[in-house]
Amino acid sequence: MTLDTEEIKLSEKLQKMYQEFLIYVEQENVEFERTESKKLELQLKEKIQWLKRYLVHLEKGGKRIQAGADYWAQHENHKLIIEYGEDGQGNIEKDILFLWCETCSDIVSSHIKKSYRRKEFKKIKNHLGHEISPIREAQNSKKICLTCNHCIKNSIILCNEISDWFNEI
How far is CA 51 from the centre of its chain? Predict the structure, then answer.
């Protein structure tokens, strides 16, 4: 059994960072509107819980989370939107698209026009600004699809399969 020590260290670091931020939010919530503070606390607690489960998975020799479907599955029942990306200075970059989770203020995936997945970029760009939902065919189905809530025709944007181990955590 080989452990993915690099991913374990990164996950531990993220978990610690989220926990420290959660403590700050709980102690300094006078700076936030009360409902926003509680929402942020719940988002952080959800991220921390997921990282704890993921760490246990990695420590047992489990595989690393894969970009795409595994991340989509993490954001089931969340409100996602497709937005343009930004460059290092915060300027809009039209050759980069983000699938942004408004529920937990997180980037779910990024798509670059110049990459080998050019068709994928075009499909996603057709839904720029639209609300997106990651939906599985059935509750524990491996197949998950990004579905546009604004489009009646062609509502399914992309489909992929999540990792075999994902439902375990």
Answer: 13
Q: Coil, helix or strand for 9?
A: helix
CA distance 158 to 91: 27
123-141 confidence digits (pLDDT tens)? 999 999 999 999 998 877 8
The answer to whether 51 and 9 are in contact (CB under 8 A) is no
DSSP 3-state percent helix, strand, coil across the chain (nearest 5):
40, 25, 35
The pTM of this model reads 0.74
Residue in the block written with tokens 């403590």: 23
Q: How far is CA 46 from CA 22, 75, 82, 84, 159, in A?
A: 11, 11, 22, 26, 25
* pLDDT 10s digits, 57-96: 888 888 888 888 898 988 988 899 999 988 788 889 999 9
